[in-house]
Model the fold of this input.
Amino acid sequence: MKRFAILFVLTALWSIGLACSNRRDVPYKDNVEKALQQADLKDVTVAEDRDKNTIALGGTLHSEEAKAKAAEVAKSAANTRIIANEISIQPVGAEAEAKGAAAALDDGIENNYKAALITSRLGKQHISYTAKNGVLTLTGKVRTVEERHQAEQLAIATPHVQQVLNQIDVNR
Done:
């Protein structure tokens, strides 16, 4: 009886430890896709990067309200994942113009961010960046946590940036 009690306690502790372990390993892509389908947002694509704890939303919608709704739905279904809302807004009847304008804005974001890095003396760090529908994603390596934070603050201050996804690593 005593062995059974000990075995039961050990099994319970192991189960609790497993339940409290890192939730990064749990995939949320299917949950997000189902939630978007239920919200009638079928044109939204979902990509998940568990290593970076992110879910990227893509595709095309016809209004800012629909884009905001998609982000809200994804956040509620993605638990602790960071949502990168890269959905393109293309109003009905103006799709080609909207696509061209978004590409031009993204180019402008990248050029402005490059200039900010150079003037702040972070230009020689190994920072890469891409803009997609107003989301500026930062990658690469810097020497200190302060430089990582400075790179993010520069990105936030860059005109037309709607969201910053900071995936810069710090060399230790």
The chain has five helices and eight strands.
